[in-house]
Design goal:
Elements: E1 2-4, H1 5-26, H2 31-34, H3 45-69, E2 78-80, H4 83-92, H5 118-137, E3 146-148, E4 156-158, H6 159-187, H7 194-200
Antiparallel strand pairs: 1-2, 3-4
Helix pairs in contact: 1-5, 1-6, 3-5, 3-6, 4-6
Length: about 200
């Protein structure tokens, strides 16, 4: 994958802003509905967001650290994806509205946790931090700058791929949470206020 850094950053900013809008809309639901799951083995809306928060705890500080140390560049520079990074990013990316199923690491799996609406606030705070980092990214060479990943210390991805992986991962679980909203909507149409109706249509 090759693209001007500015174009890549704008795509990722667009996805992040959509995630923020969706999370803000989730706050209109009751705590009962935020913890609703159609199947015991599935994640609730709050579990989807807590999963993202757990990843954010690792990736946001790591990306900030590497951006501050990375060689300077500009938004017109062409980002060239690495083989492994491109694979991981595409694995996360939503494909024609479908999500590739995969097993989450135990330390990132929040199933059956006791969660409150504070999970959404933490997610929104992390998302705002992500926007700041994406804006910083336009001044750094995203091909030469690399970041560690949470799975293993033996692999580092090019920063552009790290951002792609991280943001596409957010996008997939926001979609997963929205599918829960649709399940709630099917059972109790009256509980959804207008902002939520827009995101599930």
């Amino acid at each position: 994958m090759k693209a001007k850094q500015g174009i890549l950053i704008e795509e990722l900013l667009h996805i992040t802003r959509h995630a923020i809008t969706s999370a803000e809309a989730f706050k209109e639901l009751s705590e009962k509905d935020l913890n609703f799951k159609k199947d015991p083995g599935q994640w609730s809306i709050l579990e989807c967001l807590e999963h993202l928060n757990l990843y954010g705890d690792f990736y946001l500080p790591e990306m900030e650290k590497q951006l501050l140390q990375g060689p300077p560049s500009n938004r017109d520079r062409v980002f060239k994806s690495g083989i492994i990074g491109n694979y991981f990013a595409n694995l996360m990316k939503i494909d024609h509205g479908k999500i590739k199923k995969m097993k989450s690491p135990k330390d990132k799996n929040p199933i059956n946790s006791k969660l409150s609406v504070l999970v959404i606030d933490r997610f929104l705070k992390q998302a705002e931090k992500l926007i700041l980092l994406l804006n910083m990214a336009g001044k750094v060479d995203l091909t030469k700058t690399k970041a560690s990943i949470s799975l293993t210390k033996l692999i580092k991805l090019r920063m552009g791929d790290t951002f792609r992986f991280y943001v596409y991962h957010i996008d997939r679980h926001i979609l997963q949470a929205q599918k829960n909203v649709k399940s709630i909507h099917n059972e109790e149409q009256s509980i959804l206020h207008e902002p939520l109706r827009r995101i599930v249509q």
